[in-house]
Amino acid sequence: MDLRQLRCFIAVAEELHFGRAAERLGLAPPALSRQISALEDGLGVTLLTRTTRQVALTRAGLIMLEEAKAILVRMERASRSVREASLASSKVLRVGAIDAASSSFVPEALVTFRARHPGIEIKFVEAMTVPLVQMLEAG
After folding, report:
1. Alpha-carbon gap, residue 130 to 12, rounded angstroms
2. Strand, coil or helix: 10
3. Looking at domain 3-84, which of 1.10.10.10, 3.40.390.30, 3.30.450.40, 3.20.20.210 is its CATH number?
4. CATH assignment, 91-138
5. Cα dihedral: 55, 58, 60, 63 (round 10)
6. Where does residue 18 rank: exposed (0-12), middle (13-18), buried (19+ CB within 10 A)?
7. What is the CB neighbour count within 10 angstroms for residue 86?
8. How far apart are alpha carbons 116 and 122 in whole angstroms?
9. Average pLDDT over residues 117-138
10. Stretch 58-80: mean pLDDT, rounded?
């Protein structure tokens, strides 16, 4: 069983029609039928009853539809969480200020920024103008 088979099964189960499901997925009907057959073979159960006039879910198919949707939701959530974690760890705002600025408006600005963007790490450097310019030029 793989995610492609689950997506194919969900489309057929929702459409109850191979042609419409194939169109929805951008597949040829025979390719879709092979995916469903492979899923059924892998599970060792019949998920759909097929006649020339209709497609219906078996009892196992009804259960599989719920489970397949839950699996895809969970996979999408996991993918999103991992991407967000990766992005958050790579987002760093580097701020440099001279002594006078770092004691006046900079702390308040950083507190406001951190409240609005909690996933971004702030690295603060207090230095004289020449070293700050050198750090800026160095990246």
Report:
1. 66
2. helix
3. 1.10.10.10
4. 3.40.190.10
5. 70
6. buried
7. 10
8. 12
9. 86
10. 95
Q: Which residue has the tokens 């020449």?
A: 130
- Do 9 and 33 touch, CB atoms closer than 8 A? no
Question: Can you give the residue ranges of every domain in the chain?
Answer: 3-84, 91-138
* Whether 98 contacts 128, CB under 8 Å: yes
Residues 66-75: pLDDT tens digits? 999 999 999 9
Q: Specify the residue for token string 């209709």.
A: 54
User: How large is the C-alpha radius of gyration of the chain?
Assistant: 27
pLDDT at 89 over 70: no
For helices 29-43 and 18-25, the axis angle rounded to 10 degrees is 100
Condensed to tens digits (0 to 9), the pLDDT of residues 99-122 reads 766 677 788 888 888 888 877 888
CA dist 134 and 129 (Å) reads 9
**What is the C-alpha separation between 68 and 8, in angstroms, rounded?**
10
